[in-house]
Amino acid sequence: MSTREEILKELRNSQGFVSGQDLAGRCRISRSAVWKQISNLRIKGYRIESYPRRGYRLLEAPDLLLPEEIRNGLEATVFGRTVHYHSSITSTNERAKALAAAGASEGTIVVAEEQRRGVGRLGREWFSPPGGIWFSLVLRPLLAADELPKITILASEVVARVVERESGVKTGIKWPNDVTVAGRKMAGILTEMTSTVDRVEYAVVGIGLNVNFGRCMFPADMRNDVTTLLEELGREVNRAALVRHLLESFEEGYSDLKKGEIRSLFDRWRERCETLGSRVKVTTIEGELVGVAKDIDSRGALRLELKPGLVRTISAGDVTRIR
Ligand code: BTN
Question: Does ligand 1 come within 6 angstroms of the Cβ of 34?
Answer without folding.
Answer: no
